[in-house]
Write a structure and sequence with these properties.
Low-confidence stretches: 1-19, 431-440
CATH superfamily: Hydantoin permease
Strand content: under 5%
Order of helices and strands: HHHHHHHHHHHHHHHHEHHE
CATH class: Mainly Alpha
Shape: globular
Oligomer: single chain
Largest sheet: 2 strands, antiparallel
């Protein structure tokens, strides 16, 4: 089978045994149309990614800094940028069923995609570790249990679930999304009713963040997973389904999650209260049991998503199965979680906001604007023009981080990366700049 828009040659897709527990994940081949999943399945996968307690806490931090009105605006702007970013990246992956490694090879070259995929697949392990650590710390704070034991147990549960593949991400969405909405709305309504809407709506933050940094904070939460959109959107039947699915996450699910946390913060004047797990865990009885279910299903969902992205990437690079890669990486992620990953959360967001957005911007401009049909040829080595665009965009983002904190580092990186790639590509050659050059 030859893909008309990629030039990649792949063997016939493997068949999945009927009633198999483990699904075929197409780690090294495009997903055929016959294996694509329903719109509902894709929407649940995407909505289950950001509808989590971590996003509620992040929304609370933004509102605590900017106040409710400006905080809500920053949340909305960041999510609209995320929708444009992930939606555009998802177009090519959906058209041809390409995972992130296969799609990145179009822009960065066959060998270049190894660097890109390895970097991104490693970055998302950090997110897995952060969420596993948060599970253990939340349980320890609420019930005075051993944080290490809970962290290990949670990590093993999340890893085992991820091994089931993309269908597991759909299944967990059926449970985690309604649980989050019920408890989140309950907590927000209770908090705002107690404080009074007048006090909530007029809440002013402490000014500890700039508007631009808050927008970057929103984008950085999912810019790495959003750059690897292909690993999810290759399962969509068409580009319309792809765009609807990503819209289910950005702006809808992530905006709802962050605004619920923001409302609770505005009502209580404490960003800590945005983690509403503790509010219900403290009630004891059935509510405490349901709160534990919420915590594990909720953080288990985002852990499974990040571990799946990492596992697909490394499985594709090593020519192993996604299931084996998920098992090995899951154990590594648990070890990182125990080491105290949660303590470096803000540093992690800043790093992602500088390094990742320009990478995705280069892919978007290359595949949808600059080369389009020419991008059918995958360079055997490295496309230096693409790497130059990524490097220059990241450098501009770093400068904005250091000298222009009022700007959004992530948006600067996207714009600068796209512009740099356009200039480099048009100035130096029309062949895409493969390296090493073809033999004479």
């Amino acid at each position: 089978m030859t893909l008309p828009a990629t030039g990649l040659t792949a063997p016939p897709p493997p068949t999945e045994p009927e009633h198999s527990v483990l699904s075929e994940e197409y780690e090294n081949t495009p997903v055929p149309l016959s294996a694509r999943r329903s719109l509902l399945s894709n929407v649940l996968v995407w909505m289950g990614f950001p509808m989590i307690l971590t996003c509620a806490v992040s929304g609370g931090l933004i509102v605590a800094a900017l106040g409710l009105a400006h905080g809500a605006l920053a949340i909305l702007v960041g999510n609209l940028v995320l929708f444009a970013y992930t939606g555009l990246i998802g177009i090519v992956s959906t058209r041809h069923g390409l995972n992130f490694r296969l799609q990145s090879a179009l822009t960065f070259g066959a060998k270049g995609s190894t660097i890109i995929t390895g970097s991104m697949a490693t970055i998302v392990v950090g997110w897995f570790a952060v969420q596993v650590a948060l599970t253990g710390e939340s349980m320890a704070d609420a019930f005075d249990v051993n944080v290490v034991v809970v962290t290990v147990v949670a990590g093993l549960l999340y890893t085992g679930f991820t091994v089931l593949g993309v269908k597991a991400l759909t299944l967990i969405g059926y449970v985690s999304i309604p649980l989050f909405l019920v408890f989140g709305l309950w907590a927000a309504i209770d908090a705002t009713t107690s404080a009074g809407w007048s006090a909530v709506s007029s809440y002013d933050g402490d000014g500890s963040l700039t508007f631009g940094f808050a927008v970057t904070m929103v984008i950085a939460l999912f810019v790495d997973g959003g750059t690897m959109t292909g690993d999810f959107n290759r399962w969509a039947k068409n580009t319309r389904h792809s765009l609807i699915s990503t819209a289910g996450a950005f702006p809808f699910a992530n905006t709802v999650s962050m605004l619920l946390g923001g409302l609770i913060t505005a009502a209580t004047a404490s960003a800590t209260d945005a983690n509403f797990f503790g509010r219900f865990a403290d009630q004891g009885g059935l509510l405490a049991v349901l709160a534990i279910l919420l915590l594990f299903m909720n953080l288990g969902s985002v852990c499974a998503h990040n571990l799946y992205l990492s596992a697909v990437g490394w499985a594709s690079l090593t020519r192993r199965s996604m299931q084996l890669a998920a098992t090995v990486i899951g154990v590594l992620g648990i070890a990182i979680a125990i080491s105290g990953a949660w303590n470096h959360f803000s540093t992690w967001l800043s790093l992602l906001g500088v390094l990742v957005p320009s990478l995705g911007a280069v892919m978007i401009v290359d595949q949808l604007v600059v080369r389009r049909t020419e991008c059918a040829v995958v360079a055997s080595g490295y496309r230096v023009h693409a790497f130059a665009g990524w490097a220059l965009g990241s450098a501009c983002a770093g400068l904005a981080e250091a000298f222009a904190p009022q700007l959004s580092t992530a948006v600067v990186g996207m714009v600068a990366g796209a512009a740099a790639y356009l200039v480099v590509h048009r100035l130096f050659s029309g062949d895409g700049g493969p390296w090493p050059p073809p033999a004479a």
